[in-house]
Every structure is written in C-alpha cells, then in structure tokens.
Amino acid sequence: MSTENVDKFLDHIEKHQDSLVERLRQAVAIPSVSGDPAHRPDVFRMGEFLVKELKNLGASVETRDPGEQDFHGTTLKLPPVVLATIGTDPAKKTLLVYGHYDVQPALKEDGWNTDPFTLVEDEKNRLIGRGSTDDKGPILGWINVVEAHNKLGLELPVNLKFCLEGMEESGSEGLEAIIHQEADKYFKTVDVVCISDNYWLGTSKPCLTYGLRGVSYFHLTVEGPKADLHSGVFGATIHEPMTDLFAIMSQLVEPNGRLLIPGIYDLVRPLTDVEEKTYENLDFSIQDLHDAVGNEINLHNTVRDTLQHRWRFPSLSLHGIQGAFYNPGDKTVIPAKVTGKFSIRTVPDMEIPIVESLTAKYVQSLFDKLGSKNTMQLKCTHSGDYWLASPDHWNYVAASKAVKKVFGVMPDLTREGCSIPITLTFQEALGKNVLLLPMGRGDDGAHSINEKLDRSNYVSGTKLLGTYLYEVAASKGE
Ligand SMILES: C[C@H](N)C(=O)N[C@@H](Cc1c[nH]cn1)C(=O)O
Ligand SMILES: [Zn+2]
Ligand SMILES: [Zn+2]
C-alpha cells in the first residue's frame, strides 16, 4: 500500500476541511424530503446536485428511472437512482458505495433551534441541519475523497461505483428491481459493498456494523361518519372512530416495550452463547443512552439488555394519527376518519409475510371484539428485511485497519436497530459482502430535531472512507 499517498490524502483533508463543510452546507440547503409530495421537486434537485458534483470530478454518471409511486391516490414520479463510475481498471478491485440523498421531514416548529435546512456550526463544532448525518454527510464524504485525489493528482487505489437513491426514507421504492436488473450489468464487476448510513454506538469510538433490523410500516384506518361531528350532539350516540383506533393501538405494545401480537416472539431466533459474547466490552454505557435521549427514561438497566432490545429483539413504535385534531386550543370535534401509524422493527428470523399476517389477524380480532359499526382497514405501506453479514470477511478486516490508522483504535463490531432495506438486496443480488461503515455518533439525532454531525466526525469520517479504499486495494481477499 502507498502509505505516502494515504498520508498526502489525510493531510489534504485536514487542511481543506472548510471546503468540505461548504459542500455539506449546499446539500443541506436542498430540502429533499422524500415523504412529502410538496418536496418531491427538491428530491430531484438533490439528485441533480450529486450528478453535477460527480461529473465535475470526472465520474461517468448514469441515472435510472424507478418509475412512479402511488402516494395515497396521487401518482408521483420517483427520483432517479444515480449510478456513477470512477475507474474501470481490471487490475484494481471495485468497491460499490451506496447512500441516500433524501431526508426525513423537518419543520422549525417541531422544536428545532435553527432552520433545519440551513447548516449551522455551533460552539461545539457540531454541524446542525437535516441530513447532516443521515445521509448527506456520509455521501459527501465519498465525494470529498474523490475530489482530494483529483486535486492531489493521485489515482484512486480502487475502482469506485456509486449507487445513490432518493427514496430510502420512504421504503426505497423501485430500487430493488433496478439492482436485480443491473446485477449482471452495471454492478457486474463489484467486489464488495460499503454503506455509510448508520451511527457509532456511543460518541467516541468508531464501529463497523454487520447487522440491521428490518421494518414493516402500517397504516390502520378507522372510518365512520360521513364528516367530522359535534361531540356535544353526537358523543355517546355513535361509534367514534378515534375511540376504536385508540382501543386497538393501545393493545399493540406494552409500555415496557413488549409486543402483544400473539406468536410474534416465536419467530425470533434463539440467543446462543456465542452471540451473548458479542454484547461484551463495547464502548457504550447507560449514560450514553441517557445523553442521546436527553433524559433518564431507559427501560433496561444493563448495556446487554439495552443492546439486545435494539439489535436482536423486535420493537413496535406508535408514530402518529392522521386526521386527528392536533392544533392548540380545544376543538370539540369527533373526527370522521383517522389513520394510526405504527411500525415493527423485525429481526432474524421474522419473515415479512408472517409478520404482516400475524399483525393483520390480531388487529382484526381486536376490532371484532369492539363490536363497532365503523369500518377498519390495515395496510402495510412499506417493509424491508433484516440483514446480517459476516464480520470475518476481508472487507471488514480492511475497514478495521483503516479505523486503526485514522483513529488509533480498533473498532467495535456492532449491529444496528435501524433499517436500510436495500442492504440485503445488495448482498443477495450481487452475492457480495456488505459492510456498514458509519460516520456519525450515536447522539446525532437522526430523524429527530437538531440533527447534527460533528465537524470532527465529518472530517475524520472522510479520512476513514479514503483510507479504507487503500486497505481494500491492499487486501489479499478475492
Ligand atoms: C439507518 C438509516 N439511516 C435510516 O434512517 N433508515 C430508516 C429507513 C426507513 C424505513 N422506513 C422509513 N425509513 C429507518 O431505519 O427508519
Ligand atoms: Zn434515516
Ligand atoms: Zn439513512
């Protein structure tokens, strides 16, 4: 391996960090919220931004059109999948990089201290803005690596292929089909895959991640009167949709986190002694959890139990109710139609169709018991499988060496409670090892208010991605 080139690269990134931050500022300014139809043009704009950046760096860029989406009766065009190639040298390994350029919704009135789409650096050098850590910072990290090599006149040690999508936060619609179609074409030469779209466990030690939970998202709709009604006139004389909905929603999960769907825990893979050991000696404490959450509201008192419930047991979260009165003030309304939203994070060996059918059967039985004359409908709006990889693969060894070089420590090996539905598709469709190499910290507040990426994580993370390329190139793995 050319340590001279690595050192030049590391030095360049350190010295040019302000221009890296400027690139992130431009990306955060594009509110590419995939879940909000009003922002769909912005998601396209973000895709164009990346195409331009990549073309400027000499990449050969193509896009694929995933088609259209039915968004609650409205047809929306799906944003393009950006495919970019840098280098086609058959003597070099080829690394596929995946990331997403869409973000979660964010409104100042949700409780942000600053405008979510204006990147702000605070006194602790935290870069605050929607998408800073999830996933614009990490995507730009790869672009920063390429730019640094161009500026230094250095060849990249591997061939790079990018696959960047704009729908990850909304179920990755259309991407799976594209990966299967392109497996023997665009992706044919790929040796290994790297995704930077999750987080360190705590706030100080890097990690490599070899597992993700799956997710199945549900809409539960209860409908009764033709229109919203006056509660003084109609209360206690009709079946109220919201009362029915609450009755069902309150029986999905216990306040202690235990799912109430019969048979769901029978699907969960039993814990082995070998797996038990993976929860030892990790850089994580209950204090880290308190800090990330901002309060001492932990369900479990040990790190082991906390991480097992994050990584290897399912969870069910209630997200919101569409159609309900939520403004300030005291409106005495009976909403005519309400949709409760909840999701289940799935783990080995919970298969999606079984989870869906157990959930549907249970929800129907709860509704039947109410004896309500309203109508009820349960819809699974998107789902993605859990994923596990082998952390013994040379791809992980290469990443460990890169972590050691950049941070001076060996990384923790972790699993993740979140989901990146397309990860398993890459592993299965390409038959290649996938590595998750996170850039941000466990307290970054992804999906929350005041999402941030520490400047040091952005800069060191960029250094890590670049150094990892050299370790992949130097690896003896086939
Ligand atoms: C881990 C990744 N950065 C992420 O945030 N994934 C989302 C994926 C998703 C699924 N439905 C909606 N978004 C997540 O885990 O929630
Ligand atoms: Zn996300
Ligand atoms: Zn993400």
UniProtKB/TrEMBL annotation:
SUPFAM superfamilies: Zn-dependent exopeptidases. Gene3D superfamilies: 3.30.70.360, Zn peptidases. It holds the Pfam family Peptidase_M20. Residues 210-365 form the Peptidase M20 dimerisation domain. Mn(2+) 1 binds at D134, E169, H447. One of its GO terms (biological process) is proteolysis. Binds 2 manganese ions per subunit. Keywords: Hydrolase, Manganese, Metal-binding, Metalloprotease, Protease. The record marks H230 as: Important for catalytic activity. Substrate binds at D197, H230, T332, R345, S419, H447. One of its GO terms (molecular function) is metallodipeptidase activity. Mn(2+) 2 binds at H100, D134, D197. The active site is at D102, E168 (proton acceptor). Its cofactor is Mn(2+). Belongs to the peptidase M20A family. PANTHER family: BETA-ALA-HIS DIPEPTIDASE, CARNOSINE DIPEPTIDASE 2, ISOFORM A. This is Peptidase M20 dimerisation domain-containing protein. It comes from Phycomyces blakesleeanus (strain ATCC 8743b / DSM 1359 / FGSC 10004 / NBRC 33097 / NRRL 1555).
